[in-house]
Amino acid sequence: MTQMKDPILLTPGPLTTSLQTKQAQVRDYGSRDVAFIEMTASVIAHLNDIVHGGDSHACVLMQGSGTFSVEAALGTLIPSSGHVLVCVNGEYGKRIARICEVIGRRHKILQTAEDQPTTGKMIDEALAADPSLTHVSIVHCETSTGILNPLEEIAAVAATRRRGLFVDAMSSFGALEIDARNLRFDCLVAASGKCLESVPGMGFAIVRKEALEKCRGNCHSLSLDLYDQWQSYLRTRQWRYTPPTTVVAALAEALKQFEAQGGVAGRGARYRENCDILINGLEKLGFVSFLPRVIQAPIITTWHAPADPKYNFNAFYDKVRERGFTLYPGKLTQVDTFRVGCIGAIGEAEMRQAVDAIAATVKEMGITQLKPSASARAVA
Ligand SMILES: Cc1ncc(COP(=O)(O)O)c(C=O)c1O
Predict the structure, then answer these.
(1) Which residue in 3, 213, 344, 359 has a CA-CA distance of 20 to 30 Å to 104?
(2) Contact predicate 203/76, CB 8 Å
(3) What is the pLDDT of residues 229-245, one digit of tens each?
(4) How much is the pTM?
(5) Ligand 1: which atom is nearest the Cα of residue 140?
(6) What topology does CATH give the domain 19-260?
C-alpha cells in the first residue's frame, strides 16, 4: 500500500507535528495508570514552568479545543457580578464577547480596527471612565490577522488600576515570552495544538492561585468549572472526567522536544525566521501584507487577495494544496484576504518550499496583478 504524504499545514492549528509526537499516541493508557498519572503531573508542571508560574500559579488542564478552555476560564474567573472590558481587534476578541453574552457576564467592548493593536493607554482610559469594570480581557496574538497586542503594557495598566486580567494566549504561548513573575495576570489560556506543536484536543489555564481560590461556585457550567477541575485534581491527581489520554501523551512528548529545541527562545527564533522567509518571499512575488511588520507576530501572516480577476481563493488553495501545502482562508469582515501560518514542526526548508509552491501556483493561474484593488487597500 502506498503511504499518502500529509501536506504541510500552514495553519494555526491543527498544525504539522513531528513524527515522535505523532508516534506518542499509539499506546492505550488507562486514566488511573501510574504512567498516565505521572504524565499528567509532568505536563502540568512543565506548562506552569514555561511562564515561570511557580507556587503562585496553578495550571489547570481542560478537555476540548481552545474555546472550551476560554469559556471555562471566563465562566470560572468572572463572577456573575463582574464586568469585563473585552478588547476586540479580531475574531477571537469577538468570540470572548460572544462567550460573555452566552454565559451572562456583563461586558463592554473596546473595539479597535483589525490592523490596530489595543494599547495600554486605550485600556487605561476605558478603565478610568468606568469604575464598574472589574476585569480586562485581551487576545495576545489575534490569530485572525496575526497582530500582536502589547501584553506587558496592558498587564501593567490592569495591575495599576487593580483589575483582573484575562489573557487569551492561544497562539502565542510557547513562542513569545510571558513571565508570570513580572507580568501580572489572573488567568492565561492556551491549548495543546498551537505553538507547543502537539495535536489538538485539550487546553489549559495558568491561573494566579490567589484569584482561583476565590472562584468556587462562580461557573455557569459543570464540566467547564476550572475551580472544580483544579480541586478534583488536587484531591485525586486524576482528570475529573474522561481524559484525552493520547492527546496528553502527544503533548508530553512535544514538550520534551520543546525543551530540547531551546524552550520559548528557541521556538520564537525559529518562528521569526519562518515568518521572515514567508514575508520576504511573498512580498518579492508582489503580494501585499495586511499588517505592517512592526505589529506582526511571528505566528500567522495575512495577505490581501490579488486584484487580478484570475485569482480565486478556492482554486488557489487547491493548487497550492496539490503542491503539498495547506493555506488558510482570511477571516476579516471587510477585506478579502488569505492567511499563511508559520508555526508547527517546520523550518527554513519548508518555508522556502511553500513560497516556491505559491509562486508556481501564481504562474499556473496566470495571476499577474498581485496587488489588491485600490478599494480593498482603502478599507484596510
Ligand atoms: C487566539 C485564539 N483564541 C481562541 C482560539 C480558539 O481555539 P479552538 O479553535 O481550538 O477552539 C484560537 C484558535 O485558533 C485562537 O487562535
Answers:
(1) 213
(2) no
(3) 999 999 999 999 999 99
(4) 0.97
(5) 1
(6) Aspartate Aminotransferase; domain 2 (3.40.640)
For ligand 1, which residues put their CB under 6 angstroms from it?
A: 12-13, 65-67, 70, 92, 139, 143, 168, 170-171, 191
CATH 3.90.1150.10 residue spans of the chain:
261-379
Cell 493607554 belongs to 121
Q: For domain 261-379, which CATH number applies: 3.90.1150.10, 3.40.980.10, 3.30.300.30, 3.40.50.740?
A: 3.90.1150.10
Are residues 335 and 379 in contact, defined by beta-carbon separation less than 8 angstroms?
A: yes
Which residue's CA lies nearest to atom 15 of ligand 1? 170
Residue 19 alpha carbon to ligand 1 centre in Å: 24
